[in-house]
């Protein structure tokens, strides 16, 4: 062999990594993509991509061991307690009920009794409808008194705002 034909240390490491990747079926980072594809095509050409029974058993063993480790980790985790969720729901419901009772408007739910119009307002209204003289002024004066009485009864019921 000449000096040009000798394989360097970097090339040797790359070839070993490529062989491991082909043997394992997955590559680690840093391998040239074109070399991986070429080697995979050559391997497929050789045996059509079929695995030997030994290699198939080895891969199955690896997969099952990983699955067992995952199942063991899942079984080792304590089961979360769900009792506190019911308690949290009950406390939330009780708080909502308390707020509803506390913030509910107090007092009677009966409608406010408004004052009835007096006879003077009805006469002023009739005079205005019949077109009498000074009927508008008399009606407005009586209506102002009646509005004052209505507003006073509403203020008494609901309070001043």
Plain-language structure description:
It is a single chain. With 161 residues, this protein is mostly helical. Among the domains are: 9-76, no CATH class; 119-158. It contains six helices and no strands. The chain has helices at 9-24, 33-47, 53-76, 83-103, 119-130, 135-158. Helix 5 (119-130) packs antiparallel against helix 6 (135-158).
The counted number of beta strands is: 0
Largest sheet: none
User: Any idea what the radius of gyration is?
Assistant: 48 Å
Order of secondary-structure elements: HHHHHH
Distance between the termini: 107 Å
- Helical content stands at 55-70%
Structural class: mainly alpha
- Average pLDDT, all residues: 81
Q: Strand share of the residues? A: under 5%
Q: Are there runs of 5+ residues with pLDDT below 50, and where?
A: none
Say what oligomer this is: single chain
Given the structure, what is the number of helices? 6
Shape: rod-shaped
């Amino acid at each position: 062999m000449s000096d040009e034909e000798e394989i360097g240390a970097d090339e040797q490491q790359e070839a070993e990594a490529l062989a491991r990747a082909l043997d394992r079926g997955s590559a680690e980072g840093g391998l040239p993509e074109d070399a991986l594809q070429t080697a995979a095509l050559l391997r497929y050409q050789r045996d059509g991509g079929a695995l030997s029974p030994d290699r198939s058993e080895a891969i199955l063993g690896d997969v099952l061991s990983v699955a067992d480790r995952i199942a063991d980790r899942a079984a080792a985790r304590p089961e979360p307690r769900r009792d506190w969720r019911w308690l949290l729901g009950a406390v939330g419901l009780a708080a909502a009920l308390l707020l509803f009772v506390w913030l509910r408007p107090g007092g009677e739910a009966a409608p406010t009794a408004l004052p009835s119009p007096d006879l003077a307002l009805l006469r002023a209204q009739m005079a205005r409808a019949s077109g009498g003289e000074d009927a508008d002024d008399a009606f407005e004066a009586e209506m102002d008194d009646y509005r004052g009485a209505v507003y006073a009864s509403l203020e008494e019921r609901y309070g001043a705002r």
